[in-house]
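Render this sequence as a predicted structure.
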Amino acid sequence: MDPFLGQLLLVPYNFAPKGWAFCAGQLMPISQNTALFSLLGTTYGGDGKVTFALPNLQGMIPAGAGQGPGLSLYDLGQTGGTDSVTLLASEIPAHTHVAESMGGRGTTTAASPIGNFLADGVADYAPATSPVNSALNPQAVSVVGGSAPHNNLMPYLTMNWIIALQGVFPARS
């Protein structure tokens, strides 16, 4: 059975069979692919005079065009998303962190937090004579984040999208 012209197919191999091409955003000459150009136009790129582009599904998740109930509107050929994200403080939900003991019960020997860890013992707090806003040992509370981006990729299985360069021209109903 012949495929429809422009049909996309997900395949597990590393080559595009005869009559097919990878969906890698490559430019195609209109003069050699007039029927496919009549279907795709410049939706995925190209100048529309000499060239048009095939869809680029490298590292992408295909999504249907349109808008479902309660969902965002997506136009044909629209791309979005990102491989990594750097969170800003304004994007992190309000939350608390519990200060946990670094020492065991009954092992406290210091009355001041300066250079020491929090502990579960008699000297849990510094006396009133200690300096106000004393710094804890830097290892007592660790710094996290550092404004570095984190990976934002969904779980994946590597496969290739191909597009039919030859086949039956799809009829409109």
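Summary. The first helix runs from residue 34 to 40. The mean pLDDT is 82.
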